[in-house]
Specification:
A: alpha+beta; Cyclophilin; 2 domains; four-stranded antiparallel beta sheet; four-stranded mixed beta sheet; 7 helices; disordered N terminus; B: alpha+beta
Chain lengths: 263, 309
């Protein structure tokens, strides 16, 4: 069993390593920045706000990355959400109070260290009708031709808010408003891995074959989840990504390539 | 050193104590649903407590051992036979080459664990031997066992087999409420909701599995309906969907969720969730976080004291 006091010192050292020494803030300023809620006896939820916004999310990712790079063996899992980070830890070696101190220090330091200079990952998509059978519905709903849906879907740089729901499933922000389309009334029993869908204001990629109710507009040959790969997913929380249209021949080639590599 | 699966049982998987460090990619911990029985089974045969072992659910498998082996079964009551002769649980059993171990119906709870000295040999996926069947990875080929599968025995740990002090597992059988602490969104719920949660005898629904246990009983409602921004879900979170019927999020759970979490099962009682089966009754009681951590410490100490040294 670890000694409690030495644990506390350890936690602080990790913060110093990963982050510059923060300014001293008043307690009120601390509470404004991040609300810390014990979510269970083994986890702490750091809440930065209650809206979906890239600015709030940047704080989530700053904390996530700081804790991840700290490699504290007492921290077992990190679950980023839209505006919060759930930190799962070993409660016999780390207390909520000790962890709260670390989180507050990291949260304060964030202004000076956030690294927004990240690359943009390109995910190739074939928007052919047999791979994206709901493209005509989305086009009709938007009152736009299908080519315009493809153009608008592949235009923005999306933000990967977090992964959840199932392994490798990305929650993306930035879908152009005209593409917003309700889910299917009846979900499909089976959707191929790599399918790109739209559900209300969200767009996403099915990482594995599964049932689902999103409107399918295309498919990527890239494996969004491969348990044998390192890392197992091409996208990480906080990444920026773009969809890039490819033709059917390129899709088939890439799928064959990837298939051979993984078989 | 191979073991033939003669009959697979209902849902038999290779597990360890879980896959940690990948929740940010949407990957749940999986691992033994009753980690306490899992550890007891491994410790009985002299393994490291995290050695890969079989988790069997409701109906156990029949296994043929090619060579001699030391095995132990722990968890809920299960009628086990070695070569058609009744075999005791919670005891290290010496199997002769060619022995057939038949595990029958699991009666008292939902799951029991078969550990073999040396552990089961499976490739580690993201550092863990646990099966995540919904995602088809981990454990034995990412799935439950089937008839005809051949399992390999590994080399995890090298301690001699041990035995339990008589009556030491009686404590596990004591009925009692599942202990919970307040959940992430406990402040969304008023006193009436907590009153409801703590006074209701919930019934475990049929659609319950390793990802979650759906409870039937009095609905629990937040003060007002509001949309929760999807956030992280801790193991054992008690989520309240719009119909008000609580769901206990379990080892194969989604890592994030959009329903408010009123309470959370304490770590020391996770093993009891793993023994709940459909139609079982569940009652909850609130404890403080300090009490929950104390219970976990006591449980770990207890685990070191129940073996004959």
């Amino acid at each position: 069993m670890c000694d409690r006091d030495s644990d506390a010192i350890d936690t602080l050292n990790i913060c110093k390593r990963a982050w510059p020494q923060p300014h001293r803030l008043s307690l009120a300023e601390v509470r404004d920045l991040v609300k810390l809620v014990p979510a269970s006896d083994s986890s702490l939820l750091a809440v930065f706000g209650d809206t979906i916004s890239p600015a709030l999310h940047e704080r989530v990712i700053a904390l996530f990355q700081a804790l991840q790079s700290g490699r504290d063996p007492r921290i077992r899992n990190l679950h980023p959400g839209y505006a919060s980070l759930l930190i799962d830890f070993d409660p016999l070696r780390l207390t909520h109070a000790e962890l709260s101190v670390s989180v507050q220090q990291i949260a304060h330091a964030r202004e000076t260290v956030v690294d927004t200079h990240v690359g943009v990952t390109t995910i190739p998509v074939c928007y052919d009708l047999d791979l994206g059978p709901d493209l005509p519905d989305v086009a009709q709903h938007a009152g736009l031709p299908p080519e315009e849906i493809v153009r608008q879907h592949s235009a923005p740089t999306y933000l990967v808010y977090f992964l959840g729901f199932s392994p490798g499933f990305v929650y993306l922000g930035g879908l152009p408003e005209p593409l917003r389309t309700p889910r299917l009334a009846t979900p499909r029993p089976s959707i191929a891995a790599g399918s790109i869908g739209i559900a209300d204001g969200q767009t996403g990629i099915y990482p594995v074959d599964s049932p689902g109710g999103w409107r399918l507009i295309g498919r990527t040959p890239v494996r969004m989840f491969d348990p044998e790969a390192t890392p197992p997913t091409p996208l990480q929380p906080g990444d920026r990504m773009r969809f890039s249209p490819i033709d059917r021949a390129t899709f088939d080639d890439m799928q064959q390539d990837l298939g051979t590599r993984h078989s | 050193m191979t073991i033939q699966v003669v009959r697979p049982g209902l849902f038999t998987t290779v597990q360890d104590l879980g896959r940690y460090g990948y929740a940010h990619l949407g990957i749940s911990p999986s691992g033994a649903a009753d980690p306490l029985s899992f550890r007891i089974a491994n410790l009985l045969v002299g393994n490291d407590e995290n050695a890969p072992a079989l988790e069997m659910t409701l109906l156990g498998p029949t296994l043929a051992f090619e060579e001699d082996a030391v095995v132990a079964i722990a968890g809920a009551d299960c009628d086990c036979q070695v070569d058609m002769t009744e075999a005791p649980m919670n005891t290290a059993l010496d199997l002769a080459p060619g022995a057939v171990l038949q595990c029958g119906s699991i009666t008292s709870g939902a799951r029991c664990y078969l550990a073999v000295q040396g552990g089961f040999e499976v490739p580690l996926v993201m550092g863990s031997a646990s099966t995540f069947a919904p995602g088809h990875f981990g454990g034995f080929q990412g799935r439950r066992l089937r008839k005809g599968d051949v399992l390999q025995i590994g080399r995890h740990g090298s301690f001699p087999a041990r035995s339990l002090r008589p009556g030491s597992l009686d404590a596990l059988r004591a009925p009692g409420r599942l202990r919970v602490t307040k959940g992430s969104q406990h402040d969304w719920f008023g006193p009436d909701a907590f009153e409801q949660l703590f006074s209701t005898a919930y019934i475990v629904g049929e659609k319950s599995d390793r990802s979650g246990l759906r409870l039937q009983g009095a609905a629990v409602r937040p003060r007002e309906h509001s949309e929760l921004l999807t956030d992280g879900v801790p193991l054992g979170a008690i989520q309240v969907p719009p119909d008000g019927r609580p769901i206990i999020m379990f080892v194969d759970q989604q890592t994030t969720g959009g329903y408010p979490k009123i309470a959370n099962v304490i770590a020391a009682d996770v093993h009891r969730v793993g023994q709940l089966r459909p139609r079982h009754e569940v009652r909850f009681a609130e404890v403080s976080i300090a009490e929950a951590i104390q219970a976990l410490r006591s449980q770990n100490r207890w685990l070191t004291e129940i073996f004959v040294s």
